[in-house]
Design brief:
With 498 residues, the chain is mostly helical. The protein has 19 helices and 6 strands. It has a two-stranded antiparallel ribbon with strand order 1-2. The structure holds arginine.
Length: 498
């Protein structure tokens, strides 16, 4: 359709190779919104008459009602297909004016940004729902003592609430990152033309206002060819996915028979075609693999953008595929993760059993020796290490160690503390006490977790307010377009061009 100088049609195979028409389904709605704002402005600067505006808008609304009727074959993208449709339906005399003062270069990136605003808000809502659930589950598990792991080896004792809240803390940073990104997405490139603007008296500010953008991206080269907002967006959601893949990995490990700390619900587990006993955590495994895809998508977009000459080049079209794919993956993963955690069975008794059988209280014992017996920490570390070694060989807990063994260890190490005192410290240090005597800010001590829960709830309330404000502003901008069009069409002020 745009081939004014060419003597030949585009080769079929080449057309298929370069067309983005299928993936562009995702921006049909946004392209129509963008086109409405553009034609309102064209009416306001007297390039369109009221009747012309009305027939364009009517036809656009018809496409919105029946998107399946839009002919896409033979077009390079949705922009061309939509313009082609208008020209076919209302004639070139009216439909042929739609693209006045607009290029697909400023148009496509406007569509991408309008859609990105909606996506960003949707992801934030999913994210906030997940954080809210994690907080609720943490509140129910303040006393669910469990071993904490470093290098996947038992490290110190903690509790399940502390574990869950660690992910709230990380995900709340993602919320904050996305909220701050919103303003950088919410800037209008529309009206920049192909690269260098237009001689027509277009109002970039007016279309920006109609589309609910906070401001315009001033430089027309930057506006049409920069995609750093995509890198930022994808990097933020990749961070969300990486966090989710780690949660997935924990649940996978902890739902194995060997751990049995948690059990995912039947409705979230797959089975085996061969082994009747199997209950497999497939959706969590796919969360891990989809995280890899999202990382790859970010790499694809950055690699496409790297070294592009200034101004629009067609390479930019291919950033849409990984961008939207990452967004879709993030949305669905957040929803599924929420459902899985919501119906997860938490086996407190198994966690307590593992805690009691573990040597994760070793550091607490060493610290008690520092405080009560004034031992240098290094000496206490060596002493408890030897006790663990002895107990481990016999496969017994520290509190069941033989008095003579303890005496021998103390003698061998030339440590002059009373055996009775050492035994008292060992027996006093049970798992509950280990947690309740932890003093560091942010430790698993339930008192600390209660403070964190309060803090995170307050943060959530603030973020939900921000988000609702963003949502209200967007909804009202969509209404503005409809209201402005019906106001123009009803008003008697300017029926024709002048
Ligand atoms: N379909 C293109 C994209 O998605 C927009 C078209 C711009 N094409 C052009 N030849 N200037 O990026």
């Amino acid at each position: 359709m745009y081939r004014s100088r060419h003597k030949q049609d585009l080769d079929r195979r080449v057309l298929n190779f370069l067309s983005s028409v299928d993936i562009d389904d995702k921006i049909l709605y946004y392209d129509i919104l963008c086109t409405k704002a553009h034609v309102i402005m064209l009416y306001e600067i007297r390039i369109l008459t009221k009747d012309e505006l009305a027939s364009i808008v009517n036809e656009l609304d018809r496409v919105l009602r029946h998107p399946e009727k839009l002919v896409k074959e033979g077009f390079e993208d949705i922009h061309e297909a939509l313009e082609g449709h208008l020209i076919r339906k209302i004639g070139v005399d009216v439909g042929g004016k739609v693209q006045t003062g607009r290029s697909r270069n400023d148009q496509v990136v406007t569509d991408i940004r309008i859609k990105a605003r909606d996506d960003l808000i949707a992801i934030l809502f999913h994210l906030i729902k997940l954080v809210r659930l994690l907080i609720q589950k943490a509140e129910e598990n303040l006393n669910s003592v469990m071993p904490l792991y470093t290098h996947l080896q038992e490290a110190q004792l903690g509790n399940f609430a502390h574990y869950l809240l660690s992910y709230c803390s990380a995900l709340l940073r993602d919320v904050s990152r996305l909220i701050s990104l919103y303003d950088r997405v919410n800037e209008s490139p529309l009206g920049s033309g192909p690269i260098g603007g237009s001689t027509l008296p277009l109002s970039r500010k007016r279309t920006a206002e109609l589309l609910g953008f906070k401001k315009i991206i001033s430089n027309t080269i930057d506006a049409t060819s920069s995609r750093d907002f995509m890198i930022e967006f994808m990097s933020d959601i990749t961070s969300i996915m990486i966090t989710q893949s780690r949660i997935a990995q924990d649940i996978i490990i902890w739902s194995s028979q060997e751990f049995s700390f948690v059990e995912i619900s039947d409705k979230h587990a797959s089975s085996s075609s061969a082994m009747p006993q199997k209950k497999n955590p497939d959706p969590l495994e796919l969360t891990r693999s989809k995280t890899a895809i999202v990382i790859g998508n970010l790499t694809s977009v950055m690699t496409i953008l790297k070294s592009l000459p200034s101004g629009y080049t067609r390479d930019l079209q291919d950033t849409k595929i990984p961008f939207w794919n990452s967004i879709d993956i993030t949305k669905s993963s957040l929803e599924i993760m929420r459902d899985i955690i919501d119906s997860l069975t938490i086996k407190k008794d198994m966690m307590v059993k593992a805690s009691n059988n573990s040597y994760s209280i070793s550091l607490d014992i060493a610290e008690a020796l520092v405080m009560k017996e004034r031992l240098p920490f290094r000496t206490a570390h060596r002493l408890v290490g030897s006790l663990v070694n002895n107990a481990f060989k016999k496969q017994i807990p520290l509190k069941s160690l033989d008095v003579t063994d303890i005496k021998e260890i103390l003698q061998d190490m030339k440590i002059s503390i009373e055996v009775d005192k050492l035994i008292r410290i060992i027996t006093e240090t049970d798992s509950q006490r280990s947690i309740s005597t932890r003093r560091s800010l942010g430790s698993p001590n339930p008192r600390e977790q209660i403070k964190s829960i309060k803090k995170y709830r307050m943060l959530l309330r603030k973020y939900v307010n921000d988000l609702q404000k963003m949502k209200r502003e967007l909804a009202s901008s969509k209404e503005t377009i409809t209201k402005t069009i019906s106001h123009i069409i009803k008003s008697k002020s300017r029926p024709q061009y002048m």
